[in-house]
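Record type: monomer structure entry
Structure origin: computed from sequence
Chain ID: A
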Amino acid sequence: MTPSPALAIAAFARRSTAAVFGVSLSRGLLVAALALAAAQLGVRLTGGYLAPSWHWAWAALPVVAYAWWRARRQRLSPALAAAHLDRRLGLGGLLLAAHDGNELDATYAAQLSRGLQGAGAAAPHALWSQALPRPLAASALAAVLALLPPPAAHAAPAPAELATAQLEQLTAAMRDLFERGAVPERFGRSSSSAWGRCSSSAPKPDRRPTGATSTTSSCASTARSGCRN
């Protein structure tokens, strides 16, 4: 069925607006996805972490608003749409004459009717095969960065290492007491030998945690017994 000139012009204008909206939406999505990926990468490089959240969906609002603004700004008027469609169909001004209300004789009217049969194919459309790959790739990159596990926190010292560090602190504290004369000499000699034995038997960092705790307790009891002796 051949559309009338008015319907063909209106359809051309709508499809032109839809094409502008689609292309602008893909460009806005590309910019938003790249910005999100860059933000996540920058935070990770500084040791931080951006946990995924549904609040990120609000970033789509400015993208849609930008696409709507571009489509509204570049919307074709009926006269301009008629001129574009007439040129694409090669009608030589017949569509413009019909749009302006001029009467066409039978020959020109038939030629215009035949030309309007291809109005649907002549309407602009978004090239999704060219517009979508880059936004989709940027969105995939942002999703991968968001789904990566958070960076490991500073590891807490192992129990064996903690026990060794506590033993060294106690040894240093006792040595300081001996040097200041706060402990009698006869107690100092026995306690020093006891702390020396404990230090030599201190657990290595790769031993089991239970051994580290028991060694610290035994060292403390040995030192106390040495002081009593």
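Annotation 1: Confidence is low (pLDDT under 50) at residues 205-216.
Annotation 2: The first helix runs from residue 5 to 45.
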